[in-house]
Amino acid sequence: MEKKLYMTEINCTVVQEDNDLYKVIYQEGEYSGECIYRKVIMKGQSKPIVQEPLVLIRVDMGDIIEYIHRKTPLCSDNFNDINMEIRTDSRERVNKFISSPFRYQ
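User: That's the sequence. What structure does it adopt?
Assistant: Structure tokens below.
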């Protein structure tokens, strides 16, 4: 059985605040939510390797979950699925935004 994807139908915008902060804003009518990521620079101590992972620092998706629940009733069994979908969807959107050649830097 294929998992239901809830986030694909919700309008979304990614904005960059400062050089290292990315905000994923979901909006559907009066319902809104956001996920905020920070890019962290990590330098190796023994090797000159630099990594820039994205860290999810804030999630406020209560309104969007309420919107999804009104559209498709959710039960407690759906919580983990929706939580992972929000994380996965927002992370993919930030990665796509960062790698886009059309964004302003």
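The chain is about 30% helix and 35% strand.
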